[in-house]
Amino acid sequence: MATLVAFNAHPDDECLLTGGTLARAAGEGHRVVLVVASDGCMDAVPEGGAPRLAELRAAAGVLGAHRVVHLGYADSGHGADLYPDPPDRQRFLRADPREAAERLAGVLREERADLLLGYDRNGGYGHRDHVRVHQVARLAFARAPVPRLLEATVPRETAARLARLLREDASRLESMFLPRAEITHAIDVRRYAARKQRALAAHRSQTGGKLPGTLVGLPPRLFRALLGREWFHEVPRGAAGPAAEAAAPRP
């Protein structure tokens, strides 16, 4: 049995690019640990706890994950403005990447992880918290004794085709995700697509958005056809050392 640690920016990100891989790993008997940087809240956490973390725990149960860890940061938001930190915690983008990497590395050491999942250099579609996940994952990979790092992505050409099918603007994808030539792993997750769709539906607060809502509402056969494969770029260990330290911005 191997241990896979998937590092994501926000609750629901674990489903979109890697949900099938996580469900397949759990289904094949491996230990799956979900680590999320942000709780998905823009303001102070409500008295009953962050709602999106509760949704994440529900989705983790659907995927078969064994543990959920929140690194303690707030959502940085998406747009021109970076709002002040909430009174109870720091926004992920303002955190020192080295400090965040050490928190992640602590989980990797504790779990004796065999594999870490992060995001590609563009943070997928470019959300600033996703780009920071890419940086922090590479720093943690350089610090912790985890043998392999795979960065979740989508072939840019495939993403453009999917965007057109969903009537999204495909021209924006020119600087998103990775070209097909950089993909090192394509995982067949069609057998786990129904579980991936149910896990995405567990993020009820997000399914009102255009893309999550569209995906949850797809007929299962179409969902499996469109999202039954997941892609990764494997990072050679030598590529995540001094270069990652130098590239990590200071807050």
UniProtKB/TrEMBL annotation:
Keywords: Zinc. It holds the Pfam family PIG-L. InterPro entries: GlcNAc_PI_deacetylase-related (IPR003737), LmbE-like_dom_sf (IPR024078). The keyword Acyltransferase does not apply. It comes from the Bacteria. The keyword Cell cycle does not apply. This is PIG-L family deacetylase.
